C-alpha cells in the first residue's frame, strides 16, 4: 500500500538522495585512506565528522512533532528532516569534480558505494515501514525523527561494512591482478632494482631511471606508485619485451608490506634511502620502521644481489648489526671518511647554486665531481645513492656522471619554476619530511638571496606520530630565522610550528594564517610581487585540510 501522506512518501526518497551524495563525500576520504577501515574510522573520530545539519532538522522536527502529535505533527517531524536532506544533498559539492585529488570512481569504488547504498536501503525500508505502521502519533513522530538521525549518522559506517562484505571478492580480484603482473615480469625478465626509504625513494628512483635509460630501455614505476596493485598494473600495462631494467619504488605500510612487494618483483639490486620519522605514525618506533625497510635488503641478498644504503640517513642502531651480519652484500653511501675503508661511496664538498647541486663522489681511491640541475642539498644523497646503484649494476662512472648533467627536475619535489615577470616558485608539494623541509628552506634562502622576499606556504608535515610537536617546533624556529613571510594553512593543526616560528623570527619576519591552500594562493595573487621567491612546502590531501561542513 502506498502511503496517502505525501510527506511520509517523500521522506525516504529525500533520505536516499541525501545518502547518495553523503556516501560520495565519505568515499572520497575513504579512498584517500586507501580503504583502510581502521584509519578511516580514526580520521572520522578525530575530525568529529558527524552530521549536524540534517540531524538538527530531524531533531527539531521530532520534538515539534511529538508535541503536536497527529498528522500535523508528522508533517512537521518528517517535513523539516526532508527539507534539510534535500537542501544539504543538493548543495553538497561533488567530490568527483571538487577537491585537490578528486574521487576516482574506479571499479572498486563503484562496487563499494553500490553495496553501501544497498545497506542504506535495507535499513531505511524497515524504518519507514515502522513509522507507517505506528502512524501519526506523538510516539510515532518522535520515532520517525530518531530513526532518521540514526540512519544519517551511520552513513560512513555503511562504507566500512561494505568494505568488509566485499573483502573476499576484492581479494580474489587483487590476486588475479598480482598473478598477471608476476606473469608479465616472468616473460620479460628485466633486472629489477627496488628502492625504499622513509623519504627520498621517489627522487632516487627518478634519478636512477634517468641514468639507466640513457643506455638501455628502462621502465620505472611512475610518480609515487609503490603498492602491490599499483606496481602490478604497471607490469601488466607498460612492461615491454625490450625493457632491460625495471626500477621499482616500494612503500612500507606495515611490517611485511615490503616483503610482499619483493615477492611480486624480486629485486636483483636494492637501496634504502632513509629510516626516519616519516612513518612514525604507522610504525610507532624507529626499529619497526627499520625492520620493515630492511625487508628489501633480505630479498635482494636472497638473490645474491647488492644493497646500497644511505649511511647518513639510516641510524647506526638500525644499520650496523644488519650490515655486519652480511658485509659483502652492502655498499654504504655517506660523508663519513671511514666509508673509504669499507669500500663505500664517499660524498664531499656538496654545494648548491642557482644552477643546481654539485658534490665530489669518491669510490675505491678515485673521485669525480658530480653536478645535476636539480635543487635541494638533500638531493645530493639521493643522487649519490642512485649513482652508487648504477655503478653496482655495471654502468661506467663516466657515463653515469655525464647523464646526470641532463637530469630533469623532479615534479613537485623542489621543482624550481621561473617565468619572466612573475615570482619564482619552489614547488615542494610532494616532499614534506623534516630533512626535506629544512633543505627546502635552505634553497629558498639561496635563490632569494638578500634582495628578494622569501615566502613560505605550508600546512606542515604529516605522519610524524609522537614527534609531531617537537619536529614542527624545530622546523618552525628554522623558518622564523629564514623566511620573511610564512603563510600557514590550518595553523590549529601545527601550533608548535607557529610557536617555533615566533620564537625564532627575526625582526620583520611575519606569519599569516589561512583556512586552506586556496585561500593562501588568493592572498598571494592580491599581495604578491614579481620578484618574490615562494616555497610551497607540502600540499595536504583533502583528508587533512578539508573541514567537512556536515
Describe this structure as you would to a colleague:
With 550 residues, this protein is of the alpha/beta class. The chain folds into three domains: 6-168, no CATH class; 189-404, Mur-like, catalytic domain (UDP-N-acetylmuramoyl-L-alanine:D-glutamate ligase, 3-Layer(aba) Sandwich); 415-545, Mur ligase, C-terminal domain (Protein-Tyrosine Phosphatase, Chain A, Alpha-Beta Complex). It has helices at 6-32, 37-46, 53-68, 70-91, 107-134, 138-153, 155-188, 201-213, 228-238, 257-264, 280-283, 286-293, 295-302, 316-325, 338-341, 378-393, 397-404, 434-448, 468-482, 495-504, 517-527, 542-545; strands at residues 191-196, 218-220, 245-249, 269-272, 306-310, 330-334, 345-353, 356-363, 366-372, 415-417, 424-428, 454-458, 485-489, 510-514, 533-537. The strands form two sheets. Strands 2-3-1-4-5-6-7-8-9 form a nine-stranded mixed sheet, sandwiched between helices. Strands 10-11-15-12-13-14 form a six-stranded mixed sheet. Helix 20 links the parallel strand 13 (485-489) and strand 14. The two termini are 34 Å apart.
